[in-house]
Amino acid sequence: MSLATPTTPRLSGPSQGNDAATALAITGLRKTYGERTVLDGVNLEDKVGELIALLGANGSGKSTVLKCVVGLADIDGGAVEVAGHRVDGHAGRKHHDAAMVFQQIHLVKRSTVLDNVCSGALGHLPYSRSWIRSAFPKELREEAMACLDRVGLADRAHDRAGSLSGGQQQRVAIARALCQRAPVLLADEPVSALDPAAAEQVMELLRSLADDDHMAVAAVLHQPDLARRWADRAVGLIRGQLSFSCPPSQLTEQMLGELYAPDRG
């Protein structure tokens, strides 16, 4: 995996072009917690081969959008479709069309890197084989090795996950998501706990997954400069409503100032 950093922002659209199929379609999404409205009619599309950066202040609803997509939060209104399948909107009823990577990486640090990646496919295994690591079938281990190779860490497969650096652990988490075999990858602040060099490597990997693996990728970011360098489109949220959706090259300091104003949570 190349670790070169682009020196200029991406100016083009998704690698699959404007006619690429829509992998994630969000229409009028609403979410409330008690009397507080967190999402208020959000509309968003993510196409095959497209990397979207979700920007906004803390509390603007960015992470909640992703949680609604993968079934970690109830949907109170609107519709979500992933790979052409309607998400039923009830928390706990997860599906296999979207995988998620978190800021808190949640690896089992005493287990091997390979076992952590294999766990991404637990939903595809019979229950009797899903809770015993030694029961991971050979074909799954081979698939997990291919996922590790995809993120540049095949040589660390048999190391304990806790022995890896933060950036390497996040790449293992992405490999685990790939093992889920989902066409949509969601990343909730995947680089916020990483140093700048590791953050660039993770963003380059997400970019490559969109370009080369034709995945639809949506990443919550707090760094507009990363969005400018790596994303096809920047989406801004203010108090649960869409503020803008544009190529990152069109982001202005005024737009960002409004997005991150002190009262924009």
Automatic annotation (TrEMBL):
<dbReference type="InterPro" id="IPR003439">
    <property type="entry name" value="ABC_transporter-like_ATP-bd"/>
</dbReference>
<keyword id="KW-1278">Translocase</keyword>
<keyword id="KW-0547">Nucleotide-binding</keyword>
<keyword id="KW-0067">ATP-binding</keyword>
<dbReference type="InterPro" id="IPR050086">
    <property type="entry name" value="MetN_ABC_transporter-like"/>
</dbReference>
<dbReference type="InterPro" id="IPR003593">
    <property type="entry name" value="AAA+_ATPase"/>
</dbReference>
<dbReference type="GO" id="GO:0005524">
    <property type="term" value="F:ATP binding"/>
</dbReference>
<dbReference type="InterPro" id="IPR017871">
    <property type="entry name" value="ABC_transporter-like_CS"/>
</dbReference>
<feature type="domain" description="ABC transporter">
    <location>
        <begin position="24"/>
        <end position="264"/>
    </location>
</feature>
<dbReference type="Pfam" id="PF00005">
    <property type="entry name" value="ABC_tran"/>
</dbReference>
<protein>
    <submittedName>
        <fullName>ATP-binding cassette domain-containing protein</fullName>
    </submittedName>
</protein>
<keyword id="KW-1003">Cell membrane</keyword>
<dbReference type="GO" id="GO:0016887">
    <property type="term" value="F:ATP hydrolysis activity"/>
</dbReference>
<keyword id="KW-0813">Transport</keyword>
<keyword id="KW-0472">Membrane</keyword>
<dbReference type="InterPro" id="IPR027417">
    <property type="entry name" value="P-loop_NTPase"/>
</dbReference>
